[in-house]
C-alpha cells in the first residue's frame, strides 16, 4: 500500500475548483484533506496569491513514479502550462513524501526527488500538512524531523503569510 502526501496549489482561474479537481480526480484514494490556505507567491515571481492545501492519499497500485504520473495527469487536466519557474499556474501538484507501508520511499532520479527537496522551506506546505497530520515527519538529509519543529524555525511573518480560509474541499 503506497501512501503519499501531496501539496496542491493554484493561483489562476477558479482556484478552489482547481484544488477540488485533485480531490475529485483521486476519489476514494483520498484519506485526508487539509483546510484551504491563501498564501503569498513563493519564488520571487510577481503574481497573484495562491490557494494551497495538502492531501494524504493511498493506492496499492501506485509507486512513487505512479503518483508522479497521476499528479501530472491532474495538472494537464487543469491546463497547466510550465512556462516560467515558480510562475503562475492553474494547478500545481507536488509529491512531498511517499511511503510503502511504513517505509519511506526515496527517489533521486532525473524526474523525481523524494522526499521533496524544498518542502522543509515552505510554510505553505508544512502548515496544511500539520493540520491533517500533527505527528508528521519529513526526512531532511537523511534525518527524520517533526513538521511542528521545522515550523518553529520559520520567521513569524512567513508563518503568518499562510492564512487559513473559510473555503473547504470535500
From TrEMBL:
Origin: domain of life: Bacteria
**Which catalysed reactions does the entry list for this protein?**
6-hydroxymethyl-7,8-dihydropterin + ATP = (7,8-dihydropterin-6-yl)methyl diphosphate + AMP + H(+)
Quote the pathway field: Cofactor biosynthesis; tetrahydrofolate biosynthesis; 2-amino-4-hydroxy-6-hydroxymethyl-7,8-dihydropteridine diphosphate from 7,8-dihydroneopterin triphosphate: step 4/4
* EC nos: 2.7.6.3
The residues covered by the 7,8-dihydro-6-hydroxymethylpterin-pyrophosphokinase domain are: 85-96
Q: In Gene Ontology terms, what is one molecular function of this protein?
A: ATP binding
Q: Which InterPro entries match?
A: Hppk, Hppk_sf
Q: Which EC class is this protein assigned?
A: transferase
**Annotated keywords:** ATP-binding, Folate biosynthesis, Kinase, Nucleotide-binding, Transferase
Q: What Gene Ontology terms for biological process does this UniProt record contain? A: folic acid biosynthetic process; tetrahydrofolate biosynthetic process
Looking up Pfam families in the UniProt record yields:
HPPK (PF01288)
Q: Which Gene3D superfamilies match?
A: 7,8-Dihydro-6-hydroxymethylpterin-pyrophosphokinase HPPK (3.30.70.560)
UniProt-recorded name of the protein: 2-amino-4-hydroxy-6-hydroxymethyldihydropteridine diphosphokinase
Amino acid at each position: 500500500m503506497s501512501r503519499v502526501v501531496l501539496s496542491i496549489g493554484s493561483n489562476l482561474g477558479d482556484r478552489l475548483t482547481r484544488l477540488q479537481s485533485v480531490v475529485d480526480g483521486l476519489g476514494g484514494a483520498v484519506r485526508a484533506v487539509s483546510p484551504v490556505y491563501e498564501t503569498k507567491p513563493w519564488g520571487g515571481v510577481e503574481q497573484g496569491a495562491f490557494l494551497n492545501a495538502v492531501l494524504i492519499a493511498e493506492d496499492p497500485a501506485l509507486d512513487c513514479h505512479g503518483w508522479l504520473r497521476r499528479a501530472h495527469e491532474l495538472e494537464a487536466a487543469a491546463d497547466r502550462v510550465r512556462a516560467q519557474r515558480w510562475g503562475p499556474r492553474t494547478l500545481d501538484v507536488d509529491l512531498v513524501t511517499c511511503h510503502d507501508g511504513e517505509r519511506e520511499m526515496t527517489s533521486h532520479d532525473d524526474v523525481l526527488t523524494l522526499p521533496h527537496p524544498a518542502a522543509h522551506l515552505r510554510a505553505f506546505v508544512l502548515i496544511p500538512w500539520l493540520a491533517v497530520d500533527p505527528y508528521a515527519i519529513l526526512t531532511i538529509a537523511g534525518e527524520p524531523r517533526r513538521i511542528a519543529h521545522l515550523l518553529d524555525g520559520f520567521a513569524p511573518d512567513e508563518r503568518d503569510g499562510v492564512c487559513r480560509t473559510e473555503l473547504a474541499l470535500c
